[in-house]
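Reposting from the mailing list since nobody answered there.

I have sequence plus structure tokens for a pair of proteins and want to know whether others read the tokens the same way I do. The first protein:
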Amino acid sequence: MHTLPAVFAMNLPSRTVRNLALLAMAVVWVHSVMLGGLPISLGWLQAVQSPTADSSTSFLTRSIPAPTPAPPAAPKMAAATAPPTEAPAIARIPEKKVAATPVQTAQAATETIAKEDLQPASTPPAQQPPQAPSTATSAMAAVSLAVPAPVRIKYDIKGEVKGFPYTANGELLWLQDGKTYDARLEISHFLLGSRVQTSKGLISAQGLEPIRFGDKVRSEVAAHFERDKGKVIFSANTPEVALLPGAQDQLSVLLQLTTLLGNEPARFVSGTQIPFQAIGPRSAENWVFTTGDLEKIALPSGDMTGLKFTRPPVSEFEPRLEVWFGPDVAYLPIRIRLSQSNGDFVEQMWRGTQKP
């Protein structure tokens, strides 16, 4: 049985058949020359467009997969043109990173300065009934004191909140005339603003006796020591607390340690515990400092030696407080560090001194 082309050829004159054969051979030769010179990429394109191409064209079979990849291309195109379900999430991610992260960083840094530096968050006063002064506190009351002379201390502040580092400036102004004292600690950042803590009171045979403690970020809250009534009242409308012997506020407590160390440092051997009732702007806490060892510290002002004191967290989520007091600078605090269990911290380092 003849195929259709063969039957068609048999009915034509021999000359015509010969001419057609020559024409067919010429067409095949021209196509082979043209296709043989195409780049690989165009060869791939032609193979996609003509999946039935002659398998004898060797460069096509080497440069492309089998024709079957063409059908899977349809889902890819559909996924690109159809409304993707993940598009909103992808759009929100950059917005969150660009818009939220700097704000969170600034807010977190402000919160670290405002809530952690020298003032851990307080436990509700109702959970802390008045306690009798411990024997350690009474023993400290019998120690002679060495109140440091007036001075202005400059600190470099550095910290980290949720992996974002920040820096700030710090200044402690200490004034005293032998009968009264006035302390002011300011931490400031050119973008975040400042936080100021103040402590004012009397100087007695027991050391510092605060009368008023203030804490200001945007507005000030304060604690007032009513010693004649044996209580502390707060401007933040939180419940008053009983005033215990040897009580300090959260700024004066550091300077009280300075006065205790200044006269008899040998008394504070490693492991000595010193408890205080520490009054904050809204409540009272029980702080216990433990004496450590002398350590060499690299500070912005140069290397100094500091006697380390540690106050552990007062609750599970509170910061750990570490303070180093410098023997070469009347045992004033040369380094103060607050650190959280999640790695967040804030630290102030002695940079220099000025006349008050």
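The second protein, same order (residues first, tokens after):
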Amino acid sequence: MFNKQKFVADFNPATGELIEKIRCATRIEITAAVKHANKAIKSWPFEPLKTRIKKTLNAIDAFEKQSDTIAKLITDEIGKIYKYSKEEVKDALELARINVDLAEKAAKVETFQKGKLVTEVQRVPVGIIAVITPWNFPFDIPLSLIIPAILMGNTVVFKPSEHTPLVGRLIAEVFAEYFPKGVVNLLHGGEETGQDLVNCDIDMVAFVGSRDVGKSIMQSASKNVLKLLMELGGKDAMIVARDADLEKASDFAVRATLFNCGRVCPSVERIYVEHTISLKFERLILDKLKKIRVGNPYDSVDVGPMINDTHRQRVINHIEESVKKGARLIYGGNKLEKPGYYLTPALIVDATEKHEVMKEETFGPVIAIQRVKDIEEAIEKNNKLKYGLGATIWTKNIKKAKQIAEKLEVGMVGINCGVGGVPGTPWVGIKQSGFGFYNSLDGLKQFTYPKKITYHK
């Protein structure tokens, strides 16, 4: 919860208990952080790339030594199941090393020649980057943006989510230990702090978060024509064809909807099932949901708490709105009467595009299923939505799946699997899910401009 005047109140969602109150940055402190970044940008880009790489690897090694501490902070601050918090740290560090490995290739000068005319295309840093990140992956996402930015010679002003200030503070402390002063600067606060930062004298905003906040940042950024990298969430569809392996498809549906309590941008948020197999698929889902354990993220459970009661109530509102408009709630959707912000996973069937759970990001443990007459109808319904992050296709016919994938208006497609893909490939959304890339060679280049130098040989 964010107090607009002075403090971020950091609560443990599993217990509802206050962990710590963190003072928000004042406007004077925000301006000072940008000044520090501006001072550092005078020298940091001119450090040899090998030096920047060495310092980055030292920081990654330091994070690795604190893996357990970081994982515990993640679980305490957002309620992510502890084993998945450990996975987040492990995966983030793997991606960080991949970005390091790609840095030399991203920074390489390209040379073009026609007769005696030569053009060199250099990659130069953008400048001061505002990195504003969400709470659902409080270690992975900041590293995915900060490390490419500083590797390519930029400086960073980092504002973590107000719900994960302790993870953010640890990240900033490690970078401060291994990098010159001003290369990575930390600011605590909520949306107001982020807006104040965007209105400062910076050069780029790298933002991951909600579409509405992203639109507000874009409006502010337009005043100074800032470069933007925006990942604004999704409403990812799962398309289940009549020839799909329903056991595997239903396993994935439950896992991809409930992972991190449904608080993942590429979570399965709407499922389109061909009508001839819909009843069987729904029964499989229901059987699996009945075995799901909800509880404290340090226990042997499958689903932890929501981040806070406001978020939990928003998910409940989506469920109740759908039922009022004709969908059927088959299972779950209830608060647990215990400390913390728990919600039993819900199964909704007979959902349609008029229901919030099929058109607006729910970001919670809700499985919403709509029956369609054929795959073409599923494609049409997917493409009508304003989001375009990812989608998955479930069929035994890979050739057919690839044809379907070509028609889907999304940035990422998984065929009988999730959308993540091989580490080092770009993470990308289209339409109102944002623009720009990260965690790849393309992602590193996002933090540079091409600069042409032409001369006669």
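Reply #1 (J.P.):
I read it the same way you do. The first helix runs from residue 27 to 40.
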